[in-house]
């Protein structure tokens, strides 16, 4: 395996006892066309005629840090800074072109609640479908189904097609399935505003319970007060580069100061 393109590894011998996530010089590069193309047909014609030129940019550039067992690690930054790309790399959705990622234990990614739900299937059927996508057996989902149903509070709608659900109901079911089994690593991307206030409290309580049980949590949020309250440490990312890592209050203060004075 070359040093330029290393897959995500799970070799625990390479990690410290307290570590569950380690990123070593991780880089992800995207390319986008210089010109906007209105339709897929136009794009395909231009592609065949070799009339499309691209620019490359680093979504992540030489990112390194580690997350310990039972730690809530926050990631802040402006839109387009690379935060969601970082979470997708740790969740194995994206593969870096440089660097190495070490992850210890089972990962539960809350990147897009209900991703994989089929609108024509019922809530009950989608629970088993989503569980399979997350790597659980049918028996495991059968065993945990009553708890998922109780947590989601969707008993009266569980046999209705998902397409009839409101966005809040959809998110409730997605969160309930994704967090049904306690993982070693929980990845959270801007989804803690699901449902009403009472359900949001349930979500927070579950996340805090998992943290107390030793789950490592990697979380992205634009709500800085939320990050400051929940997290043990925070990383500030800007244009794919880690600007600062430290205690939440200090990092958030420096980040706000930079925005105030236009410092990037």
Mean pLDDT equals: 84
How many angstroms does the end-to-end distance come to?
35 Å
Low-confidence residue ranges: 1-10
Number of strands: 9
For the biggest β-sheet, the strand order reads 5-6-7-3-8-9
Within the CATH hierarchy, at the fold level, what is the topology of the domain at 12-106 and 221-260?
Rossmann fold
CATH architecture of the domain at 12-106 and 221-260: 3-Layer(aba) Sandwich
Helix content range = 25-40%
SSE ordering = EHEEHEEHHHEHEHEEH
Task: Offer a concise description of the structure.
The protein is 34% helix and 25% strand. It is α/β, with parallel strands linked by helices and 264 residues long. It has a domain of 135 residues: Rossmann fold (3-Layer(aba) Sandwich), CATH 3.40.50.300.
Report on this structure.
With 264 residues, the chain is an alpha/beta fold. The protein has a domain at 12-106 and 221-260: P-loop containing nucleotide triphosphate hydrolases (Rossmann fold, 3-Layer(aba) Sandwich). The protein contains 8 helices and 9 strands. The chain has helices at residues 40-48, 83-90, 123-133, 138-152, 167-178, 197-212, 224-230, 248-260; strands at residues 19-33, 54-68, 72-76, 98-103, 107-110, 185-189, 216-220, 233-238, 241-246. The strands form 2 sheets. The protein has a 6-stranded mixed sheet with strand order 5-6-7-3-8-9, sandwiched between helices. The protein starts with 18 loop residues before the first strand and ends with a helix. Residues 1-10 have low confidence and may be disordered.
């Amino acid at each position: 395996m070359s040093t330029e393109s290393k897959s995500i590894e799970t070799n625990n011998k390479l990690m410290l006892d307290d570590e569950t996530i380690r990123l070593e010089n991780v880089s992800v590069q995207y390319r986008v066309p210089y010109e906007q193309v209105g339709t897929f047909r136009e794009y395909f014609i231009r592609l065949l005629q070799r009339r499309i030129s691209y620019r490359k940019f680093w979504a992540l550039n030489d990112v390194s840090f580690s997350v310990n067992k039972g730690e809530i690690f926050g990631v802040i930054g402006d839109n387009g800074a690379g935060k969601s790309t970082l979470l997708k790399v740790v969740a194995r959705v994206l593969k870096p072109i440089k660097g190495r990622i070490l992850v210890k234990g089972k990962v539960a990614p809350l990147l897009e609640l209900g991703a994989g739900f089929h609108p024509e299937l019922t809530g009950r059927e989608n629970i088993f479908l989503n569980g399979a996508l997350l790597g659980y057996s049918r028996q495991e989902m059968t065993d945990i189904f009553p708890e998922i149903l109780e947590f989601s509070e969707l008993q009266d709608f569980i046999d209705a097609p998902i397409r009839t659900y409101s966005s809040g109901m959809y998110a409730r079911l997605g969160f309930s399935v994704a967090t049904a089994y306690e993982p070693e690593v929980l990845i959270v991307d801007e989804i803690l505003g699901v449902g009403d206030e009472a359900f949001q409290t349930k979500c927070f309580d579950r996340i805090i319970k998992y943290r107390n049980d030793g789950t490592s949590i990697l979380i992205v949020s634009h709500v800085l007060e939320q990050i400051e309250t929940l997290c043990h440490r925070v990383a500030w990312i800007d244009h794919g580069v880690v600007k600062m890592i430290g205690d939440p209050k200090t990092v958030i203060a420096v980040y706000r100061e930079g925005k105030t004075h236009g410092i990037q």
